[in-house]
Amino acid sequence: MQNFDYRNPTHIVFGQDRLAELNNLVPADAKVLVLYGGGSVKRFGTLDKVLAGLGERQVVEFGGIEPNPQFDTLMKAVEMVRAEKIDFLLAVGGGSVMDGTKFIAAAAPYQGDEASLLKHGFAPPPIDGALPLGTVATLPATGSEMNMGAVVSYQGGKFPVMHPLLFPQFSFLDPSLTFSLPKVQVANGVVDAFVHTLEQYVTFPANGHIQDRTAEGILKTLIEVGPQTLAEPENYEARATLVWSATCALNGFIGVGVPQDWTTHMIGHELTALFGIDHGQSLAIIQPSVWKLRKTEKREKLLQYAERVWDITEGDEDQRIDQAIAKTRDFFESLGVKTRLSEYGVERGGIDKVVQALEAHGMVALSERGDLDLSVSRAILEDAYA
Amino acid sequence: MQNFDYRNPTHIVFGQDRLAELNNLVPADAKVLVLYGGGSVKRFGTLDKVLAGLGERQVVEFGGIEPNPQFDTLMKAVEMVRAEKIDFLLAVGGGSVMDGTKFIAAAAPYQGDEASLLKHGFAPPPIDGALPLGTVATLPATGSEMNMGAVVSYQGGKFPVMHPLLFPQFSFLDPSLTFSLPKVQVANGVVDAFVHTLEQYVTFPANGHIQDRTAEGILKTLIEVGPQTLAEPENYEARATLVWSATCALNGFIGVGVPQDWTTHMIGHELTALFGIDHGQSLAIIQPSVWKLRKTEKREKLLQYAERVWDITEGDEDQRIDQAIAKTRDFFESLGVKTRLSEYGVERGGIDKVVQALEAHGMVALSERGDLDLSVSRAILEDAYA
Predict the structure, then answer these.
(1) What is the CATH number for A301?
(2) What's the pLDDT at A270?
(3) Are residues A194 and A162 in the same domain?
(4) Which residues of B touch A16 (CB under 8 A)?
(5) Residue B242 near chain A (CB below 8 Å)
(6) Across the interface, do B240 and A6 touch by the CB < 8 Å criterion?
(7) Which label site among A282, B165, B335, B377 has the fewest CB atoms less than 10 Å from its CB?
(8) Average pLDDT over residues B359-384
(9) pLDDT tens digits, A42-101
(10) Domain count within chain A
(11) Looking at beta carbons, which residues of chain A come within 8 Å of B3?
C-alpha cells in the first residue's frame, strides 16, 4: 500500500424527509445563498422544503446553474455573494450545482484572478479561505456531495478544482428527492459512479486489499441496482442503494493508498466540451476502449475485475479480459447509454479536435503510469468511434 | 436502508516514517500531554520519534495506562491535565491508551462527577467540550484511532463512552511500528477487527448493499492476511493491510443505515472484567455461541455470510450455517486464539457470575432486536464453555 492521507469531514444526513434538520446545521445567523439549476427543484417542491428548513434566516437565491457549470455563470453568483455579504452557500441539485457552488465558495473571497483557480489541475489552488457550504443532493452520480472536488467549464475546456476547504460541511441525501429524475439522468449517474470506481481500481496491483474489495462491492451493487432503479424509479430501497453507492464511489475511501487513472474522465471531458455529450455518456464511450488499448498495463487488475465482479473464469487471459470489457459495455448499453462515439452524431473528423483539445489542456501524459500520450488517446478515440 | 448520520473527521496519516509530520498537525503553541502504556513505546523507540516530531513544544508524559484502562488511573492523568494546564492530548499506543485518552479528554474539562460520564451507554454523555486529541496507533485492533468511542473499566465493569467531540483530530498509522508486537496481541487484534465487522453485519437484512459488501471485503481480507501477518510479522504489506482493515472495521462506515448487534462485546466485556481474559479472546469465546443460539433471528445474514465470505454452498440451510460457524471458530483457533471458556481456567460456576454482572450492568435486552435476555446470555455462556 502506498502512504496516504485521508480526511473527509462531511456530515452525511441520509434518509427521507429530513430537510427540517437544515435548521440545526446552518449557522443561525447566516445569510444564505441557495443555489440551484434549471428549476426542477422548484417544480418538484424541493426548494420550498429547503426554504422552510432555513426558517427565519436571510436567504437569497441564485438559479440557472447549467449542466457542466460555466465560469461566467458562476462569476455572477460570486458577484452576488460579494454584494449581498453572503456567509453560507447551500447547493440544491446535482453534481453541476454542487461543483459550481464549490467554485463560488473558493472564488468569492479570493483576491486574485478567479479564472486562475482553474489552472492547478489536481493540485490545490492557492486559496487561504473559502465560504462554508452545504448541499442537498438531488442526483446520484458525481459524489460531489462528499468530496473536495469540482469541475468547471471555461473557454471550451473542463477544469478540476480540488481543495480541502471545499468539502461540504453537510450533505442531505434523500433518495425520494431523486424519484422524479428523467431516466437518462439516472442511467448517466449509474455509469458515472461505475466509472469513478473503475478509475480508482483498474490500474496496477498495489496491495490495496480493502480498497479493492470495497470497489468490487460498489461495482457489483451498481450492476444489481442500476437496472432495478431504472425500472422502478420510486422503489425507495433501490434508489437509496444507488444514492449511497454513488457517494461511496467518489468520497475518497476506495482511492487511498492505491494508484488512480483518470484517463477516461479526461478524454470524456473533451467530448462533453466539444460536442455536448453528457458526462456519463462520454465515460461509457471511452472506458471500454481505454481498456482495449491498455490491456498490457492493466492486465492483472483487469483479470481480477473479470473474476471478482463478473465471475468470469473460463478462457485464457486475453479471452477473460475481452469478456470483461464486453460485459462492461453491455452493462452500459443495458442502461440505455450508447457506447460508440459515432452514435452521438460526431463525425470521424471530430477525433482530431479532441486530440487537439487534449494537447491544449496539457493532457499528454495520462493514466496511472503517466505514460498515456496523445497517440494512445487518438487510438482510444478511433477504437471508440464505431 | 435505515436513515443515518455519518460524520468522521479524523485525519488518517498512513505510512512508514511519518512521525515528523506531528509538527504540522499539533498546534504550535500547544502544551502536550503524551500518554502511553507499559513502556514498549519507549523500548522500541517510538516515543523518541514522537518527541522529536513535537519539536520545541512543551511536553509532559503520562505512562502506565493499563490494558482495559482503569478509571482511577485515568483520573490521575485528568489531575495532571488540570494542574499542568495541558491543551492537547497525544495517545501513543493501542486501543487502551487511545480509549483512556478519549476519556481524559472528556473528563478534564468536565465540572461534574467524572464517573457519571460512564453511565450513558451508547448515548453521548452531557459534555459540552473536550480537549483536542491525536493518536499514534501501535496496535491494529480496536479502531479507536478513527472513531468517537472508548471503553473504560470501573468498579468491576467495562463502560462505553461515545461522543462526537472524542474523534481524534488525527491518527498516525505506521504499520512498521507494530512489527515488534507479541504474536498474541496481533492474533487478538485480528479477532477484534473480525468481530467488530460481524457485529455490524450478521444481524437481519436491511438493504445495506454497500455496507454488506464492504463488511464481507474486510472479513475476507482478514481471513487472508491474518495468518500471513502472524507468520511474517515484518512483512510490511501484510501488516499494512491488517492495520487498515482494523481501522475500517470500526470507523463507522460499514455500520451506517443497518442494524447492529453488540451482544458478543457486551458479554465478552464481563469475561474480561471478571476473569482477566483478553478482549480479543473473550470475543472468540462468545461469538460462535451467539450464532448457535440465534440461528433463527440471524438466519438470512448467516446464510449470506456462509456463501459470500466462506463460499459455502453445499447442504441445507442449517448445515450451511453450522459450517459457517465452524469455519469461524477454526479461523480464530488457527490464529492461536482458544474459543472455549473452559480453556481459560474459568470454573463452570463462573457463568453465574457473568450473568449476575450482565444483570448488574443492565445488559438484559441485547442484540439487534433488543430481545436477547439473561436466559439467552446464560445459554450462550453454557454453550461457549466447552
Answers:
(1) 1.20.1090.10
(2) 97
(3) no
(4) 3
(5) no
(6) no
(7) B165
(8) 97
(9) 999 999 999 999 999 999 999 999 999 999 999 999 999 999 999 999 999 999 999 999
(10) 2
(11) 14-16, 18
Instruction: Give the model confidence (pLDDT) of A293-304 as tens digits.
Output: 999 999 999 999
Radius of gyration (C-alpha) of chain B in whole angstroms: 20
Asked if residue A198 lies in contact with residue A287, where contact means CB atoms within 8 angstroms, the answer is yes
- Residue showing cell 516515543: B47
For A154-184, the DSSP string reads ETTEEEEEE-GGGS-SEEEE-GGGGTTS-HH
CB atoms inside a 10 Å sphere around CB B37: 21
Query: Any CB–CB contact under 8 A between B11 and chain A?
Result: yes
DSSP letter assigned to residue A124: P
Reduced to 3 states (helix: H, G, I; strand: E, B; else coil), residue A69 is coil
Residue B238 confidence (pLDDT) above 90: yes
Pairing label, strands B157-162, B149-154: antiparallel
**Looking at chain B, which residue has its C-alpha nearest residue A172?**
B5
**Order of strands across the sheet with B170-173?**
A58-62, A31-35, A88-93, A133-137, A170-173, A4-14, B4-14, B170-173, B133-137, B88-93, B31-35, B58-62
- Out of A2, A244, A256, the one facing B1 most closely (by C-beta) is A244
**Domain finish residue from B135, B155, B177:** B177
Closest-CA residue of A relative to B5 is A13
Q: Per the domain annotation, does A2 fall within a domain?
A: no
Provide, as residue numbers in chain B, all residues whose Cβ is less than 8 Å from the Cβ of A240: 1, 207, 257
Q: Which of A146, A169, A194, A213 best probes binding to B when mutated, by most B CB atoms within 10 angstroms?
A: A213
Instruction: Answer with the one of B177, B201, B235 that is the final residue of a domain.
Output: B177
- Cβ of B245 and A12 within 8 Å? no
**For B267-303, how does the pLDDT look when each residue is reduced to its tens digit (9 = 90+)?**
999 999 999 999 999 999 999 999 999 999 999 999 9
Domain of A301, in residue numbers? 183-385
Residues of B in contact with A213 (CB under 8 A): 213-214, 216-218, 220-221
ipTM: 0.96
CA–CA separation, B93 vs B41, rounded Å? 7
The CATH number of the domain where B44 resides is what?
3.40.50.1970
State whether residue A15 sits within 8 Å of chain B by CB.
yes
B76: buried, middle or exposed (CB in 10 Å: 19+, 13-18, 0-12)?
Answer: middle
Q: What phi, psi does A110 have (nearest 5°)? A: -80, 135
Query: How many angstroms separate the CA of residue A225 from the nearest CA in chain B?
Result: 9
Report the alpha-carbon distance of residue B143 to residue B8 in Å, rounded: 12
